[in-house]
Write a structure and sequence with these properties.
Shape: globular
Number of strands: 0
Largest sheet: none
Structural class: mainly alpha
Distance between the termini: 20 Å
Number of helices: 2
Helix content: 25-40%
Order of helices and strands: HH
Length: about 50
């Protein structure tokens, strides 16, 4: 995935859960976002 607008919806939550699952399985998962979206994301993404 190269670019994605992260919103609080069903699809995004599913993607987030899969990324968390893979990270717990040992896969290196990286998410880079710009500061303009920081207030929107809040605490929805954090290190596992």
């Amino acid at each position: 995935m190269q670019y994605y607008i992260w919103t609080d919806d069903e699809f995004t939550n599913e993607v987030k859960e899969v990324l968390i699952e893979r990270a717990k399985a040992g896969v290196v998962v990286r998410a880079i976002y710009d500061a303009s979206n920081a207030p929107v994301l809040g605490n929805s993404i954090s290190a596992t």
